[in-house]
Amino acid sequence: MNAIPDGRAREAAVLAQGVSRWFTDTRRQRHQDGSDAPAGPRRVVALDRVSLEVQPGELFGLLGPNGAGKSTLIKILSTLLLPSEGTVRVAGYDVVRQAHQVRRRINMVSGGETVGYGILTVRETLWMFSQFYGLANGPALKMIDEYLETFGLADNAHTRVNKLSTGMRQKMNFIRGLLNDPDVLFLDEPTLGLDVQTARIIRDFIRDWMRRRPGRTVLLTTHYMAEAEELCDRIAIIDRGRILACDTPDGLKRRVQSHSVFRIEAARLDAPPEADGRWPGIERISWEPHPATGRTRITVIAADDAAVTPLLADLRERGADIIHLSKVEPTLEDVFLQVVGRGLGEHSGA
Amino acid sequence: MAVRMRLRAFRLAAWLGWQMESNWTDPWLFAVYSIIKPVSSALILVVMYYVVTGGQTQGDLFAGLYVGNAFFMYVGQLMFGMSWVVMEDREFFRTFKYMYLAAPSIYWYLTGRAVAKFLVTSLAVAVVLGFGTAFLDLPLALGAVRWGYLAAVLALGILACVAFGLLMAGIMVISARHGQGYAESFAGVLYLLCGVVFPLDVLPAPLQPVGRAIPFTYWIEGVRRALMGRGMSPSLAGVDDGAILAILLLSSLATLAVAVLFYAWMERIARDRGLIDQVTEH
Amino acid sequence: MLEELERNLRAVRARAYVRVVGTFRELSWVAFEIAMPLLSVGAYVFLYRALGAPERYIGYVLLGGAMTAYWLNVLWSMASQFYWEKQSGQLEIFFITPVSRMSILAGMAAGGMFMSTARALGTLVLGSWLFGVQYRMEGIWAGLGIFLLTLAALYGLGMVGASLFMMYGREAWHTANLLQEPIYLLSGFYFPVRALPRWLAAAAGIIPITLGLDAIRQVVFPGAVDGLLDPGLEAALLAVSCAAYFVLAHAALRKLEDLAKREGRLTLRWQ
Ligand SMILES: Nc1ncnc2c1ncn2[C@@H]1O[C@H](COP(=O)(O)OP(=O)(O)OP(=O)(O)O)[C@@H](O)[C@H]1O
Ligand SMILES: [Mg+2]
Fold first, then answer.
1. What tens digit of pLDDT does each residue of A107-142 get?
2. Number of domains composing chain C
3. Where are the alpha helices (DSSP H) in chain C?
4. Which residues, other chains included, contact C87 with Cβ-Cβ below 8 Å and sequence gap of 6+?
5. Which of A38-47, B190-199, B235-244 has the lowest average pLDDT?
6. N or C, fewer C-beta in 10 Å, chain B?
């Protein structure tokens, strides 16, 4: 049952040290105000000195908003992109110099992606990919049929890929990621765009798979808090290319446990006021307007309960109605707010 | 109102087509692109002619085939251009379905996308004719050209090109990716049947009536008469200039009508089978 | 070692399977792929007839027309395929698998070869029958040998092309499109390449089809005295270029994949 090759038992499944990645945009930037652009290419930093260690058997989550650098990191780990600096080892091998060894032991699934040739059926497509891992026909087809059964795709085994619904296609893609029984499986937002039930099937499967195959590692990115909280043994919060915190879900929550977290729902609040140091004792505050209802959901992390009073007065003064106010148990969402400084649903208007 | 909407779709499509034709690289490469390809294909014919005749380029046959080949570029380019729009929008940009939702008339959209191709091809035709005059003794004198007749013939010929382009687009709507070669193959067949590079009379007897039923036969012959004062096919010598124009007009309009109906029919099939947004790479 | 080989062979077969199955599931190609190319080559046949060319020129044209099937397959169904697969997100999936990129390309080539051969045979057999082309029967086997050599070298060249498509995407596509007619001209698809200036014909020899066509024409058509070089020498040159292209392809695929990974272009779409 030992999935880790002998002599590597103590190696981390994923080991990233000081990994940065930048992209140079060689196209000239045209400024909107028509001002002179400084000559030379623009550099986008997608990852900034990221270090990370994931042990075999761990289900590790990367949590971060759009553009945080999650997919970039996954691409580097799965040998599709080279780091600009730093070293990365996956399953005990260097992703730059030993890509071939790494590829034999990993697989990757990106959510929301179309794979496969429209002309083939589901079963044929999966068979095709199994061949790229050198599986013999008989066992490969047997495994494929079992997985199709598990994911409720058995009825569609002979449907052409271009006739599948998005969710079915994603399930197929997920099965593809399991075909070589990888030591390390990278999942880049595996439940993107799936309905609640399908997402549940996938999540349950991941947990079950980890349980049945000790020593297998999953590295998952998501921006669904609940998914990260439910699945992951450990979570790294990543924003603008930097890892800001890395701990177990409980460990992360403990960071805000000494604080008071309030949720406020306000109506007729036209524009959120500038926050900086305006209300002493309030450490973080996030504003999520819901244009449909005209209400704003406000999350407050404060040093103590009393600190919220001046804020409420201030809001009323601006003509806002406080519909609802409650003190809540901190969730990962609040941890995110505490660590990153803004809510996951807020824009990163740097 | 409806007309304004159609014109707007046409204008938008023309703009889009121009962006795609010209955007991929700088103007210099763009020019090379529209010179090298057409001059090379013309040179294939020239070398074939040289090999057999041993270096002669005088004579009606050479001038006739050279001019015929030059103008036939419009047929190939517009047919390919209009049908390729379907493939490219559908499989590459995945926008074909949105065009269906947004454009008031798909016919005007497809035709509009061909405008850029028309302009680029016009440049190529001019370059090929100039090249022939400068280096290959092509007997072409601007003073002797019958410009009015040329304009009339050219306009009708382009109409026929658009009609055939629409036909190909219709086929593309129900075909998979590898259908991208169909337009080119079909243009090749027209190249054979319409006496573009040899007199119609050289075709086997059963094929000659087929050639005579296609507008391009008269178009190419008309262009030759306008540019050089005489045609190439003895069997069309009896048809006077006015008759060429009349036959061209009628056959182009008939083709256009057939093409519009055909496209509508193919579109119905595509919607019935859910092919409007298919992606078929393999 | 053996495991590595097996995996790569399986990959070749699987990728070829997609092509073959795809072909059979879209049977509409038959008419287009077989009849249409023949008809368009027909125009050149009648041009030669109109000019009163020697009969063997008809054979030259048919052979050239048949070769276009392979040329088109290499260029548009193999070399440029990495570009399409990048657009559809497929390339990433292939590239995280532990198989050689050359195996994937070889699979595409093998699968596409099937259709190309149908097309080439259609042109050659039907055309020869329709236009009454004469062959030198004793040269057929030698011709077939040279043809296979040409094909191997051509597919090697196509793999080099694939590396360029992988890296440069749309630009490579436009360049290949740009070169299509010049190559028809320079490789002598429709006339004996000796008709071109010598230095130009020699330069065109880097495209395997130039030498291949010239050699095959010399051995299979009676009275073909208009070759560029001795067919034996041309076959030897083809063998050398075949080896060279495969070595080059191996190196180029590796080098450009590395470069693409460095610049982040491997996973960049819509470029
Ligand atoms: N090939 C590339 N060229 C240039 N910039 C890139 C490239 N790939 C990613 N980037 C940039 O790197 C940053 C991080 O992108 P990345 O895709 O890793 O984010 P992400 O965390 O996966 O976001 P999302 O949740 O939206 O998927 C972004 O600013 C993005 O624009
Ligand atoms: Mg992402």
1. 999 887 777 777 789 999 999 899 989 899 999 999
2. 1
3. 2-25, 29-30, 36-51, 56-74, 81-87, 90-95, 101-121, 127-131, 140-168, 170-186, 198-204, 208-220, 231-263
4. B92, C269, C270
5. A38-47
6. N
Q: Is residue C268 part of a domain?
A: no
Residues 212-271 of C with CB under 8 A from B: none
| Among candidates A75, A124, A134 on the partner chain, residue whose Cβ is nearest the Cβ of C10 | A134
Q: Tell me whether residues C264 and A81 touch, CB distance under 8 A.
A: yes
Q: How far apart are CA C21 and CA C26, in angstroms?
A: 9
The predicted-structure confidence for B65-122, as pLDDT tens digits, reads as follows 999 999 999 999 999 889 888 887 787 777 777 777 766 678 888 888 888 889 889 9
Mean pLDDT of chain A: 85
Residue C150 or C225, more confident: C150
Determine whether B141 is exposed, middle or buried from the number of CB atoms within 10 Å of its CB (0-12, 13-18, 19+).
Answer: exposed
- Edge-first strand order for the sheet with A217-222 is A106-110, A184-188, A217-222, A59-63, A234-239, A242-247
Structure tokens of A26?
Answer: 């060689």
Report how far residue A303's alpha carbon sits from residue A257's, in angstroms, rounded to the nearest whole number: 10
Show Cβ contacts of residue A343 under 8 Å, excluding neighbours closer than 6 positions. A286, A287, A288, A299, A333, A336, A337
Instruction: Report the complex ipTM.
Output: 0.88
Helices C170-186 and C140-168: crossing angle, nearest 10°? 150
Global pTM exceeds 0.90: no
User: If DSSP codes are grouped into helix, strand and coil, which group holds residue A260?
Assistant: strand
Rounded to the nearest 10°, the torsion over CA A325, A327, A328, A331 is: 90
Question: Pocket of ligand 1, candidates A47, A63, A72: which has the most ligand atoms within 8 Å of its Cβ, to mutate?
Answer: A72
Please give the residue that has the higher pLDDT: either A255 or A209. A209
Residue C271 belongs to some domain of the structure: no
pLDDT by residue (tens digit) across C1-12?
788 899 999 999
Among A38-47, A182-191, B75-84, C2-11, where is mean pLDDT lowest? A38-47
* Distance (Å) from the alpha carbon of C68 to chain A's nearest alpha carbon: 26
Token couple for C266: 């491997």
Q: Which residues of C touch B38 (CB under 8 A)?
A: 181
Show the tokens assigned to C3.
């495991």
Residues A241 and A257: their CA atoms lie apart, in Å, by: 26
With the most atoms of ligand 1 within 8 angstroms of its CB, the residue from A21, A22, A23 to mutate is: A23
Question: A49 falls in which pLDDT band (50, 70, 90)?
Answer: very high
Whether A75 is in the pocket of ligand 1, judged by its Cβ within 6 Å, is no
Query: Taking phi first (over 0 means left), then psi (-120 to 50 degrees means alpha), and beta for anything else, what does residue B128 get?
Result: alpha
| Residue found by looking up tokens 């990645």 in the block | A21
Task: Look up residue C258 and give its amino acid.
Answer: D
Tokens for C191, please give them: 């006339």
Give me the residue label for tokens 């999936």. Answer: C93
Q: Which atom of ligand 1 is nearest to the CA of A72?
A: 18
